[in-house]
Design brief:
Blueprint lengths: L4 E5 L14 E5 L21 E3 L18 H11 L6 E3 H11 L16 H11 L21 H25 L11 E2 L7 H10 L4 H7 L4 H16 L5 H15 L10 E5 L4 E6 L2 E11 L7 E11 L3 E2 L2 H14 L3 H4 L3 E4 L2 E2 L14 E5 L10 E4 L8 E2 L13 E3 L3 E3 L2 H9 L3 H9 L4 E14 L3 E3 L4 E4 L6 H16 L3
Helix pairs in contact: 1-4, 2-5, 3-4, 7-8, 11-12
């Protein structure tokens, strides 16, 4: 089914979203969603630990009674009221807040001893716009100072706003949730935020946008998604807008798991789109269909670096495939693997499959498919070392690329045009690639420079011309992410 597109102009988001020139975004309607395969119950997402911040003010040696009538005395009152506050926050944020306000020369950031400052007003305005960035503004709400004890009320406001600003900035930079806690299909080294340095910067800078801009994803695609989210929420148009809003929110969360900026040269694989892309000088120069993992052999979501192209590869059959797919054939015909051209070895000794005792531990047995026209990996594979043993490769099963839903592999990514991708990462020509394949010999060739690869999962994704495409949540991962986001928000609502 072809994707339908339409054009529209998008206004900047509350004065914060700045796109180059006039902001244009185009929609592509989602394809009908097939029923999802039911999977076993997964454990609930574990939210970060929260605790009250314990601010222990260090004695400065000053006589506070002599300062009560001065501005510095008012600030000292506020600072000293922090000792008895019980404000819940994530443990890492609590540590940064405690360290900052415990300093003998700590300065108030958001109040001046009499009330909130213009800087506090800027911070509150920024937090209220969190929804524009795919976050939940309720997570960062701060109540105004209230109560008869003015110093205590200001102390509570000061600490609360610092904690919420740190949370807001950290969420923008790396996302609200830790994807590695969702399931084993996610593998990211979570981006660190130096919270102690950040609160010091919040204190020192007169303009908070300097800090915000440093931590907001600067990839243009993130801005396109933000513009799309604004449009969907304000227009009420575009098919199933509620479902699409969720897809955009998840996409913006996922973008925060990736580098703040993509490099000039990289490979991007989007599993729900069943597509692979190659970028050179930040420009899309190559795209092709891809086959990804079956429901019970899902392709992981991670990033790595392409290091090697292997020509005429052999295929070491994983033990899971031996156990689940080959043993049933061998029970019917012990010579099955011999007839199919596989090489079998037991503890390193080659022997016919018909003579192997298949009841022994499979760890003793190796099954290899030699290079050749029927090899499952085709004529080449592109390697980017990772703990999931996932790579891109050719395939003799060319007919699979004609399918609309291309979930046929055991987790690796099959490419429609692997020679072109190999030529791109090797910085050479397809003719050169053909020459390497022609002699039939297995050989490894390192790429001249490592190429980042993002094996990703986006059900909403903007193409380079501004078109927003929507795809089916084929593995049900968006639903898991939204559940984790909801659990995070519920945790943050506790006081």
């Amino acid at each position: 089914m072809p994707l339908r597109t339409s054009s529209r102009w998008i206004a900047p988001l509350a004065g914060l979203l700045v796109l180059s020139g006039s902001a244009i975004a185009v929609r592509a309607e989602p394809l009908p969603a097939p029923p999802l395969t039911q999977t076993s119950q997964k454990p609930a997402y574990t939210v970060p630990a929260r605790r009250p911040a314990h601010i222990v003010r260090q004695d400065t040696g000053a006589s506070l009674s002599a300062l009560f009538d001065s501005a510095s005395g008012n600030q000292a009152k506020v600072l000293n009221e922090m000792d008895n506050l019980q404000i819940l926050m994530n443990n890492d944020i609590a540590e940064a807040v405690e360290a900052y306000y415990a300093q003998p020369k700590a300065k108030l950031i958001w109040v001046d001893g009499k009330g909130p400052t213009p800087k506090a007003a800027q911070a509150l305005s920024l937090l209220k716009q969190a929804d524009d960035w795919g976050l939940n503004a309720g997570d960062y709400a701060v109540a105004p100072p209230q109560g008869s004890d003015r110093a205590r009320a200001l102390a509570e406001f000061e600490v609360s706003l610092s904690a919420k600003m740190l949370m807001f900035l950290q969420d923008n930079f790396r996302g609200r949730i830790d994807p590695n806690k969702l399931s084993n299909y996610y593998d990211f080294k979570r981006k660190p935020v130096d919270l102690k340095a950040t609160i010091a910067q919040l204190s020192a800078t007169p303009d908070l946008m300097v800090v915000f801009d440093r931590l907001l994803p600067s990839n243009p695609k993130f801005a396109q998604l933000a513009a799309e989210l604004h449009y969907l929420r304000t227009s009420g148009q575009g098919g199933d807008s509620a479902a699409n809003i969720n897809k955009v929110i998840v996409a913006m969360e996922e973008m925060r798991w990736l580098p703040q900026e993509f490099p000039e040269r990289y490979v991007f694989i989007n599993q729900p789109a069943y597509m692979a892309y190659y970028y050179e000088n930040s420009t899309l120069t190559l795209s092709m269909k891809a086959v990804i993992g079956q429901q019970d052999h899902q392709t992981n979501f991670f990033d790595a670096s392409i290091k090697t192209v292997e020509f005429n590869p052999d295929w070491g059959v994983p033990q899971s495939i031996i156990r689940n797919e080959m043993l049933p054939h061998l029970k019917r015909d012990p010579a099955y693997l011999d007839k199919e051209g596989y090489v079998v070895s037991v503890k390193g000794k080659t022997m016919p499959s018909a003579k192997v005792d298949w009841s022994q531990p499979l760890e003793n047995i190796g099954v290899v498919q030699p290079p050749g026209a029927d090899n499952a990996l085709g004529q080449l594979k592109i390697l980017f070392p990772n703990s999931h043993d996932i790579y891109m490769h050719d395939t003799p099963a060319r007919g699979k690329f004609a399918s609309q839903d291309r979930m046929f592999s055991h987790g690796c990514v099959r490419l429609e045009n692997p020679k072109a991708m190999a030529a791109a990462v090797l910085k050479t020509s397809v003719e050169f690639v053909d020459q390497q394949i022609a002699d039939g010999a297995k050989k490894d060739m390192p790429v001249p420079e490592e190429v980042p690869v993002y094996v990703s999962y986006f059900t909403a994704w903007p193409t380079d011309d501004g078109v927003i495409h929507y795809f089916d949540d084929i593995y049900g991962r968006d639903a898991e992410t939204l559940t984790a986001i909801s659990a995070t928000t519920a945790s943050r609502a506790q006081s």
